[in-house]
Design brief:
By secondary structure, this protein is of the alpha+beta class. The protein is about 35% helix and about 25% strand. It comes from Rotaria socialis.
């Protein structure tokens, strides 16, 4: 069965769309709710969501672009409930805005209350409960250079970027085992905050060249203009050492770069094994 999408943000308070408890498409019209019965090349057939319970054939047909009502059979064996369907549309609009907007939660609720009837408003749940259900998450994808061989993707929340910008001690390292196949490594940045170490940036990188590290650093510097760590700890990757050194160890900025003792031990052990 084809998945159907609707412009939820454009519907009014009495007709629109949503999803069922099983996340299937739901169409709301004139106080009744419908689920998909079948689809063809030119139309979608919808049946009353209570068709099994009431054994009646309330149905409507919508064109293939889901913009025009082609046929309506209002042979329902139960009364419609305009207030309940209004609330369902209200909840769906909030979900849509929460997923597609960086607006504050209260602003989203105020926007979705537009044109809602007094009867529906009276039956809404407590707004503290609404805030918990539809809490808007921070933007996590900060940058995507695009689908090519040198693609870089940077993930971080707004709060994590604030810690990155204010942190004096930066720890960086790459890992390879959990990296998607189209990337070479997952590069992580942590900062020391009080007595804890906090992850602040996760970047998917196509390789481990100095140029790639510099692209990552330059992009983060644009996102966080005040980013200037005093201490940077990393492994013995010369490319990353040079990239961070070029950016932060200058005549105007004297960051101290140090290498991890754990990686130093591993490096010495590998050398000893090679030289017997």
């Amino acid at each position: 069965m084809a998945q159907v999408e609707f412009p939820v943000s454009n519907v009014d308070a009495t007709q629109g769309c949503g999803t069922t408890e099983k996340n299937k498409p739901l169409l709301i019209c004139k106080g009744f709710a419908y689920t998909i019965d079948k689809t063809t090349n030119d139309k979608t057939y919808w049946k009353c969501e209570h068709v099994r319970k009431f054994k009646r054939k309330g149905r409507i047909h919508i064109n293939c672009t889901h913009t025009t009502l082609l046929h309506e059979n209002d042979n329902h064996n139960h009364p419609g409930n305009p207030v309940s369907t209004e609330i369902r549309i209200f909840e769906e609009k909030i979900r849509h805005q929460a997923l597609n907007s960086n607006e504050a939660t209260q602003n989203v609720i105020d926007y979705c209350l537009t044109n809602l009837s007094d009867h529906a408003v009276a039956r809404l749940p407590d707004f503290k409960h609404v805030n918990e259900i539809f809490k808007i998450t921070d933007l996590f994808l900060q940058f995507d250079s695009g689908p090519d061989n040198d693609r870089i993707i940077i993930f971080a929340s707004v709060e994590q970027l604030q810690f990155l910008e204010s942190g004096e001690q930066l720890l960086v390292d790459g890992t390879f085992k959990v990296t998607p196949s189209i990337f070479y490594q997952l590069y992580a940045m942590h900062v020391v905050y009080g007595n804890v170490v906090l992850p602040v940036v996760f970047a998917l990188l196509p390789n481990k060249t100095q140029q790639t590290y510099r692209r990552l650093i330059d992009k983060l510097s644009k996102i966080c203009p005040l980013w200037s760590p005093k201490f940077i700890m990393m492994d013995f990757d010369l490319a990353s050492i040079n990239a961070f050194g070029d950016k932060f160890v200058t005549t105007t900025n004297r960051s101290i770069i140090s290498v991890c003792f754990f990686h130093l031990q591993n490096s010495i052990q590998r050398k000893l094994q090679v030289s017997n």
